[in-house]
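Give me structure tokens for this 210-residue protein.
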Amino acid sequence: MDVGTDACLDYLSEALKQGETSFDQITPNRTDAVRQGIGMTRLYYREIAPTIQPLLVEQRLEAIVDDGIILSGQPDTIAIEPGQIDDLKTGARGPGNHNVQIGCYSLLAQSAGLTIERGVIDFVKRVPIGKVQPAAVRITVPLALAEQTAANVLRHVVDDLRVFRNGDERLGLRPGDPAAFLANPNSNLCSAKYCLAHGSNFCHEWQKSE
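Here you go.
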């Protein structure tokens, strides 16, 4: 457990130094962030880690999807017996729906020659200091549906890139028109941290309504 908590503190310290962490009502300051991080790490160590036999941990996988398009992902854990994607989520709210992510991880693992039989989301909730840390939640993801959903999203990406490159007279789009891509400003990924188009003249969907 000491190894895990030390790693947590090192990672959190670096994230705070780089400005990658913001505070809220549940985690109002650095001291609380450290205490919460240690508590969540200990919970993971007690309840989740003993059930996993890791095969790959945080190893980046890549697969060619189409001409000029490479799917790249880094699953938290690919476990042995059964071949299983284990992805850890934390936060103040519930784990949400991560079918596309798990589906992509499964497709990547299979392209690397691994047999995947199950997808699991491990969720550890972030709670205010003074409240009891709730038990970890493990959610089994319907793997076939997740893979199908991921394949649909990837097909959409391929089609959008084709329109961006070549244009589409039917849609009234010329080559290089950013409207070829469908933005999702409600996504957490719609931010300068995750999207190079955020804040640029290429995409205006990021702008907040007055």
